[in-house]
């Protein structure tokens, strides 16, 4: 396996010039490259793990797990376990070779102690022996984990014995010592993140599960076991093992979808010290779901691997379609867009020297990788099409349909925009317009459903607030063509109400309301509709957002009542605070969402009895009466709204591209991007 030869280059390391190579070839106590101590890590943790918030905290786990994955990918380990212990510690073990324990000449202490107390120490960085493929952006070695842990214990099973050493904030408490015998090999790292460094110290089960599941997909054959034994958490256990690797990943992503090619395309190939892996399958939907990875790191911004893949995909499908005469001589070639509709694919490359670029360092930059992916994929996918003529035909048929729709849409679009079909049309009947005709003071509330629309109509100030209820799930505008989109009544109503026309015909001076406010329920459906609307605005009303006209209303999540006094909470933290103010014990009713069950309801009842605090969770806007809705969400004096901004329309658009897929990963990225583009604003 070439991955042995692959290591993850740490850009910081390159620039440090006091590297002293001791032994390049062999992995033993001697082959460790010695650098400096851990003080810099504690001084500037962000430099090493990105942040000291939740993301940085989880990086500690990823870092240790990555080492286990490296052992597995090098053929020495098969299993990695991550246990969140009852004691609050995290225990991560692997059955690899175990960190070497012999005396390390340059430092005079054991190799284990060197690995754990010296920055960037570890044979893995040596040219000949290095193979590290995994590692997050900040994959900098277990010593960083040690530096940022108030306590860490390393146990190594090696050479017939169990070796142990403990550390506090990176400082060894005693010398390494044997504490027993063992026939196995492996490493067990147990640690507690330093609460004086991290602003968040609670690990998220969901995050751990998502990340490790993905790592298991990306490294076929390894087994990852995870358990939650923490106090106050429901005991949970998971095992991830995917013989099919990214092929299984594609299968999961297309689960519940009608697929075009039954057989999933899959290729894995080594080329010039790099490893290329691609899996793909078409479904009958319209969006593309492509997940590119380099050295097990997700590349939200794509890069050279994705570019190579896309070029080869378009070329291969066109040549096959021509060769089979499915695409006739006088017909135009399929475009990149045509061949991406309904495509689910994963591109995973492993390389020695990854260069990450872009705003979030989420883009692979190595130029040679484009050629490698193109070459490997081109050949193997051509063969696949030859060998699976039925699947090939279904795929190409779908692409041709996309091409036809694209051409029809181009014509329809030209007609619509030329005719100015949307200008001067009568306002939709569903719109409860406001009386003012001064756009500067006017607001349009886009409300989900007729019932919430009814409440909003009663709640509003009719002078300057207009209400437009939208029924049901509006069209998925992500891929919809302009003609189809405008055939959808809900969207047409919205476009007419705004008064601006759309796309390149958009004229902001005609905007009838300077505040356009999306008001949806705080549930899954509500957030879906909000997402759809945001997509619509991002794609077709970009300058409306750029000029700060788009907002999201923030209805409260809870009403907390004590006697006749009612307060509203817009977050769980605020709920806690209010309960405390009311003299209640907030911890008593803290419920983990996944553990919300009857027991908790009982707890709540108990609480109500003892301190007479009544907590109502608002699931929908309809649960509020008009007065409450006005008071909490619509009254400009009191309401909280979020203004939507776009720093970079292009990037938002890219994000939305991936968003509509059913996968959690792009969705998660959306939420992060979204959090950045949404700024809190009290109006
Ligand atoms: C340095 C050298 C060798 C293995 C490791 C580090 C190693 C580190 C970790 C961290 C967690 N699990 C790990 N497993 C191994 C090579 C050892 C040899 O040559 O026997």
Task: Give your account of this protein's structure.
By secondary structure, the chain is of the alpha+beta class. Helix content is about 35%, strand content about 20%. The strands form 5 sheets. Strands 1, 2, 3, 4, 5, 6, 7, 8 and 9 form a 9-stranded mixed β-sheet that branches. A 6-stranded mixed β-sheet has the order 18-17-19-20-24-25, with helices on both faces. The protein has a 5-stranded mixed β-sheet with strand order 10-11-14-12-13, sandwiched between helices. Strand 1 and strand 2 form a beta hairpin. Helix 13 (about 450-460) packs across helix 20 (about 625-635). The radius of gyration is 29 Å and the shape is flat. The model is unreliable at about 1-25, about 120-140, about 585-600, about 600-610, about 650-655 and about 660-683 (pLDDT under 50). It binds 3-[3-(1H-pyrrolo[2,3-b]pyridin-5-yl)phenyl]propanoic acid (0RA). 3-[3-(1H-pyrrolo[2,3-b]pyridin-5-yl)phenyl]propanoic acid (0RA) binds near residues 67, 94, 97, 115 and 124.
**Biggest sheet overview:** 9 strands, mixed
- Structural domain tally: 3
Poorly predicted runs are 1-27, 121-139, 586-599, 601-609, 648-653, 661-683
List cofactors, ions and other ligands.
Answer: 3-[3-(1H-pyrrolo[2,3-b]pyridin-5-yl)phenyl]propanoic acid
Query: Could you name the CATH topology of the largest domain?
Result: Heat Shock Protein 90
User: Helices and strands: which structural class?
Assistant: alpha+beta
Radius of gyration: 29 Å
- Beta-strand percent range: 15-25%
> What would you give as the CATH superfamily of the largest domain?
Histidine kinase-like ATPase, C-terminal domain
- Overall pLDDT: 82
Span between N and C termini? Answer: 60 Å
CATH class of the largest domain: Alpha Beta
Count of individual beta strands: 25
What shape does the CA trace take? flat
Helix content: 25-40%
> CATH architecture of the largest domain, please?
2-Layer Sandwich
| Helical run tally | 22
Protein name: DNA gyrase subunit B
GO biological process, one term: DNA topological change
Catalytic activity: ATP-dependent breakage, passage and rejoining of double-stranded DNA
EC number: 5.6.2.2
């Amino acid at each position: 396996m070439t991955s042995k030869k692959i290591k993850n280059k740490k850009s910081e390391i390159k620039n440090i010039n006091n590297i002293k190579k001791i032994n390049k070839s062999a992995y033993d106590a001697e082959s460790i490259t010695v650098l400096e101590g851990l003080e810099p890590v504690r001084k500037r943790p962000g430099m090493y793990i990105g942040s000291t918030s939740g993301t940085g905290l989880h990086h500690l786990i990823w870092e240790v797990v990555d080492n286990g994955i490296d052992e597995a990918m090098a053929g020495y380990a098969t299993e990695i376990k991550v246990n969140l212990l009852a004691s609050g510690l995290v225990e991560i073990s692997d059955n690899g070779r175990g960190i070497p324990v012999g005396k390390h000449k340059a430092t005079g202490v054991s190799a284990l102690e060197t690995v754990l107390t010296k920055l960037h120490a570890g044979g893995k960085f040596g040219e000949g022996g290095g193979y590290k493929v995994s590692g997050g952006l900040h994959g900098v070695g277990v010593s960083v984990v040690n530096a940022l842990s108030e306590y860490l214990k390393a146990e190594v099973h090696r050479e017939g014995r169990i070796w142990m050493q403990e550390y506090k904030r990176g400082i060894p408490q005693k010398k390494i010592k044997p504490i027993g015998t063992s026939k196995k090999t492996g490493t067990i790292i147990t640690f507690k993140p330093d609460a004086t460094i991290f602003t968040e110290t609670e690990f998220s089960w969901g995050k751990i599960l998502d990340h490790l599941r993905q790592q298991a997909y990306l490294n076929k054959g390894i087994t990852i076991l995870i358990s939650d034994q923490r106090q106050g958490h429901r005991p949970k256990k998971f095992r991830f093992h995917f013989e099919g690797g990214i092929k299984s990943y594609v299968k999961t992503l297309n689960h519940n979808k009608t697929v075009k090619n039954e057989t999933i395309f899959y290729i894995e190939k080594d080329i010039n010290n790099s490893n290329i892996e691609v899996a793909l399958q078409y479904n009958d939907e319209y969006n593309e779901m492509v997940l590119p990875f380099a050295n097990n790191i997700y590349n939200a911004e794509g890069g050279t691997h994705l570019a190579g893949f896309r070029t080869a995909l378009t070329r291969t499908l066109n040549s096959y379609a021509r060769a089979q005469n499915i695409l006739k001589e006088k017909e135009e070639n399929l475009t990149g867009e045509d061949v991406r509709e309904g495509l689910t694919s994963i591109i995973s490359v492993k390389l020695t020297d990854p260069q990450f670029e872009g705003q979030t360092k989420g883009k692979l930059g190595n130029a040679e990788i484009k050629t490698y992916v193109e070459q490997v994929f081109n050949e193997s996918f051509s063969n696949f099409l030859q060998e699976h003529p039925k699947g090939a035909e279904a795929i190409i048929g779908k692409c041709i349909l996309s091409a036809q729709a694209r051409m029809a849409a181009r014509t329809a679009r030209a007609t619509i925009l030329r005719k100015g079909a949307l200008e001067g049309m009568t306002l939709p009947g569903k719109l409860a317009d406001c009386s003012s005709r001064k756009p500067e003071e006017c607001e349009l509330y886009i409300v989900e459903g007729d019932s919430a629309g009814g409440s909003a109509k009663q709640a509003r100030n009719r002078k300057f607030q207009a209400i437009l209820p939208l029924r049901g799930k509006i069209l998925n505008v992500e891929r919809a063509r302009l003609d189809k989109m405008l055939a959808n009544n809900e969207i047409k109503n919205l476009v007419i109400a705004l008064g601006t026309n759309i796309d390149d015909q958009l004229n902001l001076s005609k905007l009838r309301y300077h505040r356009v406010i999306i008001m949806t329920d705080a549930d899954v459906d509500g957030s879906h509709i909000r997402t759809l609307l945001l997509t619509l605005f991002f794609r077709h009303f970009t300058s409306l957002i750029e000029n700060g006209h788009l907002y999201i209303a923030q209805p409260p999540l809870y009403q907390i009542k004590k006697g006749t006094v009612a307060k509203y909470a817009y977050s769980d933290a605020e709920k806690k605070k209010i309960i405390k103010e009311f003299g209640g014990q907030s911890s008593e009713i803290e419920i983990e969402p996944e553990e919300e069950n009857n027991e908790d309801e009982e707890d709540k009842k108990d609480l109500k009895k003892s301190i007479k605090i009544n907590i109502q969770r608002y699931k929908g806007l309809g649960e509020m009466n008009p007065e409450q809705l006005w008071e909490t969400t619509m009254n400009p004096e009191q309401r909280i709204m979020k203004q939507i901004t776009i720093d970079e329309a292009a990037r938002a658009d890219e994000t939305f591209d991936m968003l509509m897929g059913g996968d959690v990963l792009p969705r998660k990225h959306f939420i992060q991007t979204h959090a950045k583009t949404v700024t809190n604003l009290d109006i």
